[in-house]
């Protein structure tokens, strides 16, 4: 197509083109290598193909942003609801930190039916992929990341048990700074003005929440408990930022594939390892022996106790799907930015469910968070535009695994 096409006319050195209904003979020129070059009219013959390729690219970009929107909605909605349910568990009589950790991880079996159905449907595509990492390497990745996730979830559980929701959400915003730090070293992150603007605004929006804490909140928590919760939440935020950066690094350097099966493998196997580690902690700590009495003494009843834990587990799994999806669709920092966008949402919802007071600072925090989010999304739009300009639409490219998933 275009300049790459060669005209085969055997021994003839002239060919006929149509111009204004008149046949004309146009000589063919040769380049230094003796290869024949086509004329400008032959170049124009590639126009329909270029238009078709441009339409395909727009369609792929549309579906990509649709997936990003779905994943972002899962992160925002599910994380906010799961945090509120987790806090409700502790306020109504829940005491086990290991159980609070387990519900963050143990919901992965709900994904298994869809996982096996999709895997069998695309078995031929997945099996022919070359340069797959060894089983030992995959086992090392899933086990190490799974242990990190289990520890991280436990620290979050202790922080949520120890601190008010608004204070907990404020400290969690530090995960954005930790993620940027780890992404700089692990993912070669380059800071642009829009990304810096986004990070500053999102950090300020979360920091503002500290000014809305009432004195009654600090009185509800002892000094020792507050310090423990603060340290654990900071450590959890650092671990979360590290997990995001490591996951992005594994996708790019080890797995080298961005398909549905790869994402699901990452979620399920790391959740399996993390769940096993949490179960060991639950039994080793002895907290399992008090769960029966805990359920009996739960203020809202046994049914509410079980429903709380069940829906919390489901919401955290949906959150994980959205989070990992954003990592391989965009980046770990973008995934974290979406998570931080939900930080002001939790105190807003706490006004309705936990009778927290509403202050103007919360509204200002929400505005800044949305502004920072839009700034980051605009940077992604600029990156996509530059990528399109670097890859002309008329140049054919081999389909990647991600494109195969889009066309599937």
TrEMBL record:
Molecular function per GO: purine nucleobase transmembrane transporter activity; purine nucleoside transmembrane transporter activity
Coiled coil start-end: none
Record localization: Membrane
Membrane-protein topology: Multi-pass membrane protein
The keyword Membrane is annotated on this UniProt entry: yes
Stretches for region Disordered: 26-53, 387-408
Biased composition regions of type Polar residues, renumbered to the chain: 26-38
Transmembrane region(s): 65-86, 98-117, 137-156, 191-211, 226-246, 266-284, 305-328, 334-354
Keywords: Membrane, Transmembrane, Transmembrane helix, Transport
GO cellular component entries: membrane
Family: Belongs to the purine permeases (TC 2.A.7.14) family.
UniProt name for this protein: Probable purine permease
Organism for this UniProt entry: Abrus precatorius
Classification of source organism: Eukaryota, Viridiplantae, Streptophyta, Embryophyta, Tracheophyta
Encoding gene (name): LOC113854588
């Amino acid at each position: 197509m275009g300049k790459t096409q060669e005209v085969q006319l055997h021994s003839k050195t002239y060919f006929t083109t149509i111009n204004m209904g008149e046949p004309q003979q146009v000589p063919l020129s040769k380049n230094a290598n003796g290869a024949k070059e086509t004329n400008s009219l032959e170049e124009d013959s590639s126009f329909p193909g270029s238009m078709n390729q441009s339409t395909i690219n727009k369609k792929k970009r549309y579906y990509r942003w649709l997936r990003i929107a779905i994943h972002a909605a899962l992160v925002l909605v599910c994380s906010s609801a799961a945090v509120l349910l987790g806090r409700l568990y502790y306020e109504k009589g829940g005491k086990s930190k290991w159980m609070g950790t387990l519900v963050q991880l143990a919901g992965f079996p709900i994904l298994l039916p869809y996982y096996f159905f999709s895997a069998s449907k695309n078995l031929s595509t997945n099996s022919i992929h070359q340069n797959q990492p060894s089983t030992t390497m995959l086992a090392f990745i899933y086990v190490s990341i799974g242990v990190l996730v289990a520890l991280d979830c436990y620290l979050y559980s202790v922080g949520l048990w120890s601190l008010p929701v608004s204070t907990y959400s404020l400290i969690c915003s530090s995960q954005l700074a930790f993620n940027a730090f780890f992404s700089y070293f692990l993912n070669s992150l380059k800071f642009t003005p829009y990304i810096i603007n986004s990070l500053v605004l999102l950090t300020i929006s979360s920091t503002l929440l500290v000014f809305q804490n009432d004195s009654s909140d600090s009185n509800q928590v002892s000094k020792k408990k507050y310090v423990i919760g603060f340290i654990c939440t900071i450590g959890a935020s650092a671990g979360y930022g590290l997990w995001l950066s490591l996951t992005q690094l594994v996708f790019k350097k080890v797995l080298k594939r961005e398909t549905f099966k790869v994402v699901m493998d990452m979620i399920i196997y790391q959740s399996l390892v993390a769940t096993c580690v949490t179960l060991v902690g639950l039994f080793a700590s002895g907290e399992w022996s008090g769960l029966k009495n805990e359920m009996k003494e739960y203020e809202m009843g046994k049914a509410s106790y079980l429903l709380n834990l069940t829906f919390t587990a489901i919401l955290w799994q949906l959150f994980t799907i959205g989070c990992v999806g954003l990592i391989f669709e965009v980046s770990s920092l973008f995934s974290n930015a979406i998570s931080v966008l939900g930080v002001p949402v939790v105190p807003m919802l706490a006004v309705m469910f936990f009778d927290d007071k509403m202050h103007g600072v919360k509204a200002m925090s929400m505005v800044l968070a949305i502004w920072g989010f839009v700034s980051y999304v605009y940077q992604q739009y600029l990156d996509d535009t530059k990528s399109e300009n670097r890859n002309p639409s008329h140049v054919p490219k081999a389909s990647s695994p991600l494109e195969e998933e889009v066309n599937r």
